[in-house]
Amino acid sequence: MKKDQVSKNVVWRMPRYLRKLDELADAGVERVSSTELGRRTGLTPSQIRQDLSCFGEFGQQGYGYNVSSLRAALRRILGMEQNHTAILVGAGRIGQTLLEGFDFSRRGFALLSAFDIRPELTGASVGGVTVRDAAEISGFIRENRVDVAILAVTRAAAQRVADEVIAAGVRAIWNFTEMDIDLRGSGVVIGSVHFSDSLLSLSYHLHEREAAE
Amino acid sequence: MKKDQVSKNVVWRMPRYLRKLDELADAGVERVSSTELGRRTGLTPSQIRQDLSCFGEFGQQGYGYNVSSLRAALRRILGMEQNHTAILVGAGRIGQTLLEGFDFSRRGFALLSAFDIRPELTGASVGGVTVRDAAEISGFIRENRVDVAILAVTRAAAQRVADEVIAAGVRAIWNFTEMDIDLRGSGVVIGSVHFSDSLLSLSYHLHEREAAE
DNA sequence: TAGATTGTTAATCGATTAACAATC
DNA sequence: TAGATTGTTAATCGATTAACAATC
What we know:
Mean pLDDT of chain A: 97
Oligomer: homodimer
Radius of gyration of chain A: 20 Å
Strand order of the largest sheet of chain A: 6-7-5-4-8-9-10
Largest sheet of chain A: 7 strands, mixed
Distance between the termini of chain A: 48 Å
Helix content of chain A: 40-55%
């Protein structure tokens, strides 16, 4: 039975399910049971069935799940068929890595433009995307539908830039700065990639293991 | 009362607490209460006190927490004073971004060396770190104490390289590939940074919001 | 001392797991 | 049909929140 409100944990697991289904599809596998998917993800079959049931009924008793149709369903659920749009703010090291190395279209996103305050970067094309002057950010957002602003600026500029793109009307922020962004109650969606937090969690577990020895 | 086993959620919040304390210390603030820290992190004061109590007693009734001593305690808890060591495997775009842009020493890590299979990259120095031939990985790990192997190779190479560094004796893997690494029951610690999973979660919430309108 | 705030215990809430009827 | 496996309900487990005695 479809759920109205799906928990954060469930949402976090959905991209992982999709990755596994992509792998299965690549390997030419046609059907998969929750038990087999559980084996591959390290989760219990129960949890997988429970998770999927938040969004609808995708399986068949005695058969399991059809790989390609579940895959299609997950892509739909994750909004990958929505032709979302994004701009990148901050064309520094991380920004350029995203422009050149991250396949936005494979995730259903069109990266419309990049912006930077450094004059020497503006006008260039990086990974097929034009870098514009940061002064044009608000105007660009107002003139184009921009769903996501990718924040790859310095810590010092993070909140100011966030305020600007929120005011101009973006619907979400993908945050690569090490700052916690205050959304000012705007209702904008945020997702963060914190390298440092990830390494420090790892460091904790490493230290814990050492202490146990 | 110190806990033996600390939950994943608690561990994930610790780096955030530390970031806030760094900010407070930079701003010259001397003391902070769980209420104030809660306001700044969006968590309940109860949760913060509960989280910290997993590791010991750091506050004082009627006063709160001393910023610099709690900060020092968190750094210790997170293993930042352990002089951990790391190597980078895969000196491509993400790898180079880490070498040039990520301050490992600020997180208590020494980055000893980088490795790549591409001959044109070996011998170079990127961000002050020498890139060696991938054939030398196992030897290097055996001759030096290497706590963490940073995996920044292609999806296709990910599991093979992981197997190699595990066999050679690293204690942890920091995974930047979009693959789930099978640790083969080795007891190695793993932490992952999945750009794609993060964007897809964001995409879900964006789509959900659109559907609600 | 009075006020503030901790650390901890108890209560609540939510998420995971187990069980099983339904059914392909 | 018999076997397999789902979707869902109930039971368990764990995490968050609330309450409060202890105490600075």
